[in-house]
Amino acid sequence: MTTKLPVAKHLTDEEYQILLDVYSKHNRSMGLEKRKDYTLSHIVKVERNREEKCLEVYYENGDWWHYAADGTWY
Question: Has this prediction a pTM greater than 0.90?
């Protein structure tokens, strides 16, 4: 696997792949202007949420999303 983002080094390889896969889908769902605030480099924290079986992904602008293993975000 490639080098992990510093904010995601604690994730397992499987979790990291979920982060990248869902991030990619999430990013493609946005317009070009909005994407500027949601690049990988704007992620400031990633936490596991075992209860909801997802990753909580926090961005510099204060927004955060649940990234789920089924490829969805909410």
Answer: yes
Contacting residues for 11 by C-beta, under 8 A, at least 6 apart = 4, 19, 46, 48, 55
CA count, 13 A, side-chain hemisphere, 3: 2
Given a contact cutoff of 8 angstroms between Cβ atoms, the answer to whether 3 and 41 are in contact is no
| Contact of 49 with 65, CB cutoff 8 Å | no
Sequence-separated (6 or more) residues with CB below 8 Å from residue 45:
7, 56, 57, 58
pLDDT at 65 (0 to 100): 98
Q: What is the mean pLDDT of the chain?
A: 95
